[in-house]
């Protein structure tokens, strides 16, 4: 199962690290507790839209860019877990099975 909050946390952590920022710096800039940001990055807490906007502001990244990255990560995980059709021969007729 794809967990949006885990993928969002991965993207936010990558954005923070790409900018060379610590959790403490993001916490001060976003005015959000360090522990709460840590839980969001680890996918343990859901970020509200207001909190997400504050984190994006602190990271100087557009919300749409973060959501685009998360959307791509969701698509990759969905594709990886999708059943793969397997053609099966059955008495002269083609039958498609699914491997899950």
UniProtKB/TrEMBL annotation:
A Pfam entry, by short name: HTH_3
SMART domains assigned: HTH_XRE (SM00530)
InterPro entries, per the entry: Cro/C1-type_HTH, Lambda_DNA-bd_dom_sf
Residue stretches spanning the membrane: none
Protein name: Helix-turn-helix transcriptional regulator
PROSITE patterns from the UniProt entry: HTH_CROC1 (PS50943)
Provenance organism: Nocardioides panacihumi
Residues in HTH cro/C1-type domain copies: 12-66
Lineage: Bacteria, Bacillati, Actinomycetota, Actinomycetes, Propionibacteriales
Gene3D superfamilies per record: lambda repressor-like DNA-binding domains
